[in-house]
């Protein structure tokens, strides 16, 4: 692996890890201060694609021009992404953050099998399989110690779990198979479609939000911060997806949630018991020791450090 490739991988993983660790708590804070998740989604998506496109027009970054073929390709990416994020926000309305995280920690168990079935990866090795089983065991232990059990919350988390697994696999497939001029192009197209879809969802299901939402300085600041972080997590998520397998990408996100838990314990009263946090710690520790399965017929080193696929050489910024 060349030093340049290694640097890109480290940059992608550290950037995604930082944004992922902070975004869950920031979204929780935002919907707490501004209880209108559909509106929050719309503003996050709209700000992401407009900021990215504006920077492209100013020549600061390379952003793909608007093309019908790419619009078609990214429509279902945005649809899956929007469904996943919406279920995420809804689950955070009814369940504590630890509940959400522990279900997320169990997703690699499903995604690793789907990676083998659909994306050409080997099944996990013995160590990785043990780690994934430990994830499931930790999740089961956590549900037995969760003092804040909420039926509606768990229903939303279950819906999110199903959507999330599909989202991870489908977006990885599209990242590998759709050529773009730069990673910012993926951010632009995904958030552009997500803005249209979330806007339609908001108008059809919660039109009263525009007139009944109470804005405060605190809610505006939280929303602005979440929109800013939304640009970062969109960029780093796509960069990281291109660099590693769907399962490894999921595990990286799970490991980064250690910081989320620490922040959450400091901020919210609605958090898990000591036993629940120990179970959560088991999940995240197991995730940390997971090793990415290689592609079938490719060595571990080649699979772990393959160059970012389907990205064209840098071109002048689109206008």
From TrEMBL:
Q: Which residues form the Sugar phosphate transporter domain?
A: 18-288
Predominant cellular place of this UniProt entry's protein: membrane
Q: Which UniProt keywords apply?
A: Membrane, Transmembrane, Transmembrane helix
Query: Where, subcellularly, is it found?
Result: Membrane
Q: Is Membrane tagged as a keyword?
A: yes
The UniProt entry, under InterPro entries, shows: Sugar_P_trans_dom, TPT_transporter
Report how it sits in the membrane: Multi-pass membrane protein
What are the annotated GO cellular component locations? membrane
Q: Would the keyword Transmembrane helix turn up in this protein's UniProt record?
A: yes
Q: Which residues cross the membrane?
A: 7-26, 38-61, 73-89, 101-119, 126-145, 151-171, 183-203, 215-239, 246-267, 273-290
> What is this protein's name?
Sugar phosphate transporter domain-containing protein
What species does this protein belong to? Chrysotila carterae (Marine alga)
What lineage is this protein's organism placed in?
Answer: Eukaryota, Haptista, Haptophyta, Prymnesiophyceae, Isochrysidales
